[in-house]
Design a protein that fits this description.
alpha/beta, about 350 residues, two-stranded parallel sheet, 2 domains
Length: about 350
């Protein structure tokens, strides 16, 4: 059986060429994209302004490419978490977070993760595969449709779900094209954040594109010895090299870096670490997110007490660093990368702790 064409994988030009080969005018591509991206059509039968013949042809050789919803959870604070099935039976998670400025969707880019950061639930089952640009896009469209049905508007996107986005670079770039394409999502990239654990060559490659998006870099330690213990990627790309690449990113794009720092009791939350971090960042054009850690029983790690969190933040502010202590969202529904999928698959049935690299913290 011939594999059907995924319409979410096509640009307007590609769809127009495909339709032309079937004997239909190019403007039909625009009509189809309105149904997909603005009206959230789930079937070709809904596309009532298309000729019956075209709808029949589409059903024979194409598919819309939406993912199968398996589970939806809603938190007391309004956070919503979705578990979707992919065509190969793998699962992926998407989280919608309520903020004062509007709703933000936290999107996954891989099934599992290779990076092995000690605070994160995403990599516990191991890495399975990259998501395609169409699979990443489908998450956005499906939660956007859910929000629209509730009378809510999706304002921003963060690629902070399961996986390391820059490890799936080609698909991410294709996805970004769909995001800013006025015939598809038509969203400014200023409303999009990409998270990375620090893949230095890919940060430089992204910087060269000069896109106006926000780069969020996982730091979690102010020196190499400590970062080696927390994030294995630091053994390949040292802290000095990472910060130099981030400085280059800011210079080329004009966008400040957001650094992420998860506070783990007795590991990276001391006065010494706070002062080191302040010295590292105070002259840089950046913002620092301090993230309260959520315990992962498998790792034997504990969250820093609230007084320690606030004392750590105060030292940084005193050192001239702009700091936000991130509030925690969706803790009652496991709204962080890897948790719901781990539970459903049974690969990590005891993964009760949040992934602290999640946008849900």
């Amino acid at each position: 059986m011939r594999k059907k064409v995924n319409l979410l994988a096509l640009s307007p030009e590609q769809l127009a060429v495909l339709l032309s080969g079937l004997g239909h005018p190019a403007y039909r591509a625009g009509q189809i994209f309105v149904w997909l991206y603005q009206k959230g059509a789930r079937s070709f039968a809904e596309m009532t302004n298309l000729p019956k013949l075209l709808r029949q042809q589409l059903s024979e050789f194409a598919e819309i490419g939406f993912l199968q919803p398996l589970k939806r959870q809603v938190s007391r604070d309004g956070t919503e978490k979705y578990l979707f099935a992919l065509a190969d039976g793998q699962t992926v998670e998407t989280v919608v977070l309520p903020y004062n400025i509007g709703y933000s969707a936290c999107i996954s880019t891989q099934v599992g993760c290779k990076m092995g950061c000690i605070f994160c639930a995403s990599g516990l089952p191991g890495f399975s595969r990259n998501l395609s640009a169409a699979e990443i896009l489908a998450q956005v469209l499906q939660v956007k449709g859910e929000m629209s049905a509730q009378g809510k508007e999706l304002k921003s996107l963060v690629l902070m779900g399961s996986g390391e986005p820059l490890d799936n670079f080609t698909a991410i770039v294709d996805f970004l094209e769909a995001v800013r394409d006025p015939e598809r999502l038509g969203m400014s990239l200023r409303h999009l954040t990409i998270s990375t654990c620090g893949l230095v060559p890919k940060i430089r490659e992204l910087a060269a594109l000069k896109l106006p998006l926000t780069l969020a870099v996982s730091l979690h330690a102010p020196n190499n010895n400590l970062r080696d213990k927390i994030m294995p990627i630091n053994r390949k790309y040292r802290l000095e090299e990472l910060l130099a690449a981030c400085d280059e990113y800011t210079k080329l794009t004009g966008r400040r870096i957001t650094y992420e720092y998860t506070l783990i009791e007795g590991l990276n939350d001391g006065v010494k670490e706070a002062r080191e971090l302040a010295a590292l960042l105070k002259k840089r054009i950046c913002h620092l997110n301090l993230i309260p850690f959520n315990a992962l029983p498998q790792q034997g790690l504990s969250p820093s007490p609230q007084p320690v969190l606030h004392a750590f933040a105060a030292i940084l502010r005193g050192g001239g660093v702009k700091v936000t202590l991130r509030r925690r969202l969706g803790t009652d529904i496991d709204a962080a990368c890897g948790q719901l999928s781990n539970k459903m698959s049974g690969d990590c049935e005891h993964a009760k702790g949040e992934s602290n690299e999640s946008c849900g913290n």
